[in-house]
Amino acid sequence: MRAALDRGLTHLAITDHDRIDGALAARERAPGGLTVIVGQEIRTTAGDLIGLYLKAPVPPGLSPHDAAVAVHEQGGVVGLPHPYDRFRAGAGRSAWADELERLLPLLDYVEAWNARLMLGDGNARAAELAAAHKLPGVAVSDAHTVLEVGVAYSVVPGVITTADELLTGLQHVSLVVGRGSRLIRLTGPLAKLIQRMRGNRRVEPA
Q1: pTM as predicted
Q2: The CATH number of the domain where 47 resides is what?
Q3: Which of 21, 53, 133, 166 is disulfide-compatible with 76, CB 3.0–4.6 A?
């Protein structure tokens, strides 16, 4: 939380696998100027799914569709993480073949840029998926260490205190992207895809 605040972030989603106790504790202890969003990375029968603004943990082992329904029943936000990361349980894997079409109508956003995806064209394919289905694409650090906090992030306009406000803001989200500890300028075909996604515009690193 200190790293997030020091690096200029105003909101930090904490999404541990299959638990929210750490996020709840962090929300209670968050320093002034930083809002902690309680979330979870849910292990479904096909792969990972993100739930934000949760009040209770979503049980692992549900289908992606049923896990998304469970998040929405709490008034939460559903995101598709690292869908085409070849090393993680993303939606590009064969296990998702029959699940993705059922899940798409329930998605609120797609991770169009995951800073931990270092090899391959997974981020470009994720941006294409978001654009094809008119879903907001976001940038995330997917930080597993303090060093990674804030290396990629999303800029959402307006005051964000609720799930509904986040959903509204995501229609005009901007992305700042990076790998490792260095922010980089997004150029080329991926930049064009992201700029097409529901009014996204490029944010240059400071």
Answers
A1: 0.86
A2: 3.20.20.140
A3: 53
